Amino acid sequence: MTTASISRPAVDPALVTTITGAFARRRLAALAVPVLILCYLIYTAFAFDLGGLFARARMDNAAILVSDFWSYKTHVTRDNRSGDLTIAIEGEAKGTYPAGMLPDWVTTDGATTRIDLGDGHLVTYDADGARYAIPDYGTVDIRPLNGKLALTAPEPLPDWISASDNKVSVTTDAGRFSYSRSKVETFKYQPGWELFFFTLDSPFYGKSFTELVALALWQDRVDPARSNLGYMLAEFWTNKMWRHGDVAWALFETIQMAFLGTMGAALLALPLGFMAASNMMPSGAVRFATRRLFDFIRAVDALIWTILLSRAFGPGPMTGSLAILINDTGTFGKLFSESLENIDARQVEGIRSTGANALQRARFGVIPQVTPVLLSQILYYLESNTRSATVIGAIVGGGIGLLLTQAIITQKDWEEVAYYITLIVLMVMAMDALSGWLRRRLIKG
Amino acid sequence: MVDIAFGPEPEKRPDPAQPSDAYLELTRRRRMYGGILMVIFVALMVSGFQLAQSRNAGDFLSGLPMLMAFPAEVLSEAWANRAEMPALVLRFLPSLIETINIAAVATLLGAIAAMTMSLLATRGLARWPRAIPVFRRLMDGLRAIPEIVIALVLIFILGGGPVPAVIAIALHTGGALGKLFSEVAENADLKPVEGLTSVGATWGQRMWLGVIPQVAPNWLSYTLLRFEINVRASAILGFVGEGGIGHDLKIALQWGQGRYDEVVVIFLLLLLTITFIDRISDRARERLVKGRRP
């Protein structure tokens, strides 16, 4: 070190201090940024009450959600006063088995009902009360006695049985069973989305795929008035549980809002973009005014536009389209005017030299240059607006966004929520692929 | 040249004796296609708007005069109560800060996730080159799920408050920024990475010292743009779900007359915040991308 420095010309000590200082500052900055970010995150963890969040989190809701996503439950209910038995999928009127129709795991014999929950779990309702036979444990026997419930079960009671004088409930892996004075109820969980194709009242319910194909292709008509295939499609389309027709219409409405909004905004923004571009519009006052208009539209957020428009036009898809249209006019205007300012002036000059007027110069000199850029921007926004239209739909009451929020607010039909989420994701991905494909086609020519 | 322009098929080749005929023929055909496309497009737009209008509660022309009625009503009431405005501003300031915090935390977390995912999904830089498609599809999936879906589901599980919104926006941001980040990283110069490899640097060191310094300005610029977008998204999520100034706005609007002064204050706060953040991020991005030192 010392020998080397002797042979070198002397280094300016001021330079050394500047450089070492700069290095030290850099090192400090490299350390300070992560520390600052960490401090900010810690501050927000307190501001957002992260500790209380874990206390408030409802993990049982999460369990309901996850199980509803891939399974459905069937309620087998007996009214203890009248003795009537109802079997309903998800406990809904739309999914109630008609009289005389039973799933194959329920058998009735006079007043006795036997429910096979699988894996040896057997529930029996009879005139005396109800019994639940659980393998490796024993039988839970419940009989009403003097207005109270008498429970006989192997002692000690495990924690998955809760018992009081008025209600006994048992939760096992196979299902749930509860007995109260007014009714006895058993839930059986099965995988899948039941009634997805045909509801119970449809003549096609419970048929296998090959049976359906046979019916559609060569077997006799179920309804003499129409073909089996048409009948099947109609039954599927008007399915009361899943409402496929309404859902398809809602998806279409969402895409429609995005399309109308984006294209309408592009049509409006094109002339405005010309008015705001410095190489197109000689008048500074007009340029200034147009640019401030864009700034204003962009600053008044999409949320505010949506609210203002829904007050004037009422709920519905047109309001959603107009909200997207207005909001994107500002964005497109800014983007378009920037692209117009970046064009090659020589082409315009060439057109001008032939004696073309301003409109002809724009049509033949400017538009051909900017079209690929503008189209690419429009298509990109079409894709991102499909997502926005879902959210805006939830506010203005149109499209799949409305269906989704309604299904979530009722906090009941999570299988429908799962269905809608799947469809939304597929829709957005399809629009993404479509817009990407079109962009590649258009830009490469 | 002619081969390149018209393709190899001999019959499509124009007659060299009559160049203007071929040109005019070509233009005519292009004009016709353009015209047909235009007609289809206009028909789609017109029928689309008519359909949308028929499904709407109110129609366009009768609603148009009403467009100013609501703002006028709101503004006149707010003007009458203008003395209370400063107090209201102070009252809504905490929820405004919450909205901004939601956006900031979500942008930070999303950007950090996007950094890792994008490097793992970039050809030439990935730690496990075979896993590139996995990370790409992961980012596509994150981008495709709208924020509102995640937010509403999380509100059901976690209860109200800002955290569901943060998670929802962060996941979407991770996907969206990841794609942009990866496009930037693809163009990074690999020489520093090779140099670091030659001295035995680990993957993390190669990325941190070789790639990040190159891409940082562009990444930061995209992150700022995303922050701007996320502030808007956070306000909207508050309106649909819970938390922040969007929620206050919803309550004030549901109350209707009598609380319009609050509506105006919230609108103003949102407008000013968005304009302010817009300006700041515009400046900063210009400086970052054009490389001017402050």
UniProtKB/TrEMBL annotation, chain A:
InterPro entries: MetI-like (IPR000515), MetI-like_sf (IPR035906), PhnE/PtxC (IPR005769). It is a multi-pass membrane protein. One of its GO terms (molecular function) is ABC-type phosphonate transporter activity. Residues 251-435 form the ABC transmembrane type-1 domain. The keyword Transmembrane helix applies. It is found in: Cell membrane. Keywords: Membrane, Transmembrane, Transmembrane helix, Transport. The chain crosses the membrane at residues 28-48, 247-272, 389-411, 417-438. CDD domains: TM_PBP2. GO terms for cellular component: plasma membrane. Signal peptide: none annotated. Its main location: membrane. Gene3D superfamilies: MetI-like. It comes from the Bacteria. Belongs to the binding-protein-dependent transport system permease family. PANTHER family: PHOSPHONATES TRANSPORT SYSTEM PERMEASE PROTEIN (PTHR30043:SF9). This is Phosphonate ABC transporter, permease protein PhnE.
Automatic annotation (TrEMBL), chain B:
The keyword Transmembrane applies. Residues 96-281 form the ABC transmembrane type-1 domain. One of its GO terms (cellular component) is plasma membrane. The keyword Zinc does not apply. The chain crosses the membrane at residues 32-52, 100-126, 147-171, 263-280. Pfam families: BPD_transp_1. Keywords: Cell membrane, Membrane, Transmembrane, Transmembrane helix, Transport. It is found in: Cell membrane. It comes from the Bacteria. GO terms for molecular function: ABC-type phosphonate transporter activity. Belongs to the binding-protein-dependent transport system permease family. This is Phosphonate ABC transporter, permease protein PhnE. It comes from Gemmobacter aquaticus.
